[in-house]
Amino acid sequence: MKTWIAFANILMKDMRSYYLKPPNISWGLIFPVAWTLMFFLRSPVAVEVRDLLPGVIALSILFGTTSMLAVTITFERKSRSFERLLLAPISLNLLMLAKTSGAIIFGVVNAFVPIVFAAFMTGLGGINWLMALASIVFIAITSTFLGLFIAVSVSQVFEAQTFSNFFRFPMIFLCGLFIPLTDLPVFLRPLSYALPLTYGADLLKTAVNNNGIISVPLSFLLLLAFSAFLFAYSIYNVNRKWIL
């Protein structure tokens, strides 16, 4: 019982200290709104809105989770407040899950901003909402653990943001968000299939437009594998670099 009380308190502390602050709430809304308006208003034809929706959802989750988590984890390490959390009656794995749960929730909320905008611009009938929700959650988890991997690999907030962009911006062009994988040069496709967002974006394309090209079970399995690897490697880095 004490373990789950500690988990809930750490999560609630992060929500109050970071995610529910007015600047972060406004940023969390403005960022996906900006992505949405930038793509949707470019060409508000119904079929194009549906085509763009999976990519905008994925980007809103990716940038929201990695940006917030990179700041919170790196800041707490710098201020040494993370060391106090290690005294909690909770294992390191569960502690890091508590620290990342807020970012996962933040990413899921971000995902619905483009959906709300799209609902005013085109019909959303025929969407497999169960698959879409599962895809959003899996993308949020994988993106959050990518942010954790980045955060525990650096020591400064600005380093975390710079390192994040090293991963995020190539994903915009290589993960099939707006450029189909089949249209990419052959020599770039192996790199695309090595990025987790490729599978999340394809799942969303299947859920929204039924035009994904990767097996649905395989995509979920690989997202789970990416998440497990990123989390395990992050814990390894914490044990090696942060705990003496």
Account of the protein in words:
The chain is mostly helical. The chain has one domain (2-242). Helix content is 79%, strand content 0%. It is built from ten helices and no strands. Helix 5 (92-121) crosses helix 6 (129-151). The longest helix is centred in the N-terminal third of the chain and has 33 residues, at 46-78. It is globular and about 50 Å long. The mean pLDDT is 83.
What would a concise description of this structure say?
By secondary structure, this protein is mainly alpha-helical. Helices cover 79% and strands 0% of the residues.
SSE topology sketch:
Elements: H1 2-19, H2 22-40, H3 46-78, H4 81-85, H5 92-121, H6 129-151, H7 157-174, H8 189-193, H9 196-209, H10 216-242
Helix pairs in contact: 1-5, 2-3, 2-5, 3-5, 3-6, 3-7, 3-9, 5-6, 6-9, 6-10, 9-10
- The radius of gyration computed from the alpha-carbon positions, rounded to a whole number of angstroms, is 18 Å
N-C termini distance: 28 Å
| Quaternary structure | single chain
The H/E string reads HHHHHHHHHH
Keywords summarizing the entry:
244 residues; mainly alpha; globular
